[in-house]
Design a protein that fits this description.
mainly alpha; 3-stranded mixed sheet; 12 helices; 3 strands; 5% strand
Length: 280
């Protein structure tokens, strides 16, 4: 039997009627999204990634309920899909959902599944900040950080195949190993976090996605600064063991923005529209 939260999650992820172009406030600027060159994927590779990510997403939904507010879920999907349309992953469909929890976080599973907490949204001031967090999570997926970590492939022989040899197997021991691999991936997403290099890569890609979609490229830095000030937690306390300190991320974002010539674009923040959708 499908959990009520899963049913609602599927409901809000259907094709939305409002065109994505309604969220494009500037189409005059296009920068290169020079994401890492990815190895060619077969159709089976993509299917394996989606299946692995879907299973991870089910585990996340088993831990946290979906926020049953269709208006906000649709809004987040529109913003997220606008950003994803400028990514290098046209082979998957990105899906977004808000989790009904008060703490601040966001998660990305392979195959295009992205979750953001209600607490994270309520700590935001405008749509550009929402876009910046979603863009960071999109980048984790486009750069295949989890896919590479767990060696997810459609078909491959040998020990290096990782979980690929478990996908599609009906053998009980293989199913158990697959479940364990999913558990390890969920633990990495919810507890351990990504590697420092992966976090910096995702920040860089997020800046480019923001610029290509027409959002204020300083939004991620603004959001991170506010969270540091709001929580009054030192840099050493504020990040997971594998994460770069928040202050280091902010400095890195400033450097990357200058290198990519993004610091003087003056793109909109869309605060009024954000407030129309998000009632604090």
């Amino acid at each position: 039997m499908i959990n009520v939260n899963v049913k609602y999650f599927l409901l809000v992820l259907i094709t939305l009627s409002l065109p994505l172009s309604a969220f494009a406030e500037s189409g005059s600027f296009r920068t290169r999204v020079h994401q890492a060159e990815l190895s060619a994927d077969t159709e089976e590779d993509v299917e394996a990634e989606i299946r692995f990510g879907k299973t991870i997403s089910a585990r996340i939904l088993g831990k946290f309920p979906v926020y049953e507010n269709e208006k906000i879920n649709q809004y987040v999907n529109l913003v997220g899909k606008s950003l994803a349309s400028n990514s290098n992953r046209s082979d998957i469909e990105f899906r977004f959902a808000v989790l009904d929890v008060d703490f601040i976080n966001a998660y990305s599973a392979p195959g295009g599944y992205i979750f953001i907490t209600k607490g994270a949204i309520l700590a935001m001031q405008d749509e550009a900040e929402l876009a910046s967090v979603l863009a960071h999570e999109i980048a984790h997926i486009t750069e295949k950080h989890i896919v590479k970590e767990f060696k997810i492939k459609g078909k491959e022989k040998g020990a290096a195949a990782g979980v690929s040899r478990l996908l599609g197997s009906s053998n009980s021991s293989s199913q158990a190993l697959f479940s364990q691999a999913v558990d390890n991936a969920v633990n990495q997403l919810l507890n351990k976090g990504f590697k420092q290099k992966d976090e910096y890569d995702s920040d860089r890609i997020a800046l480019l996605l923001l610029a290509n979609t027409g959002y204020d490229t300083s939004s991620l830095s603004r959001y991170l600064k506010r969270l540091m000030e709001k929580t009054s937690i030192t840099n050493h306390q504020k990040h997971k063991p594998t994460h770069p300190p928040t202050n280091d991320r902010i400095k890195s974002l400033s450097t990357m923005s200058k290198l990519e010539n993004l610091d003087n674009l003056n793109f909109p923040r869309a605060r009024t529209r954000f407030e129309q959708y998000v009632k604090k």
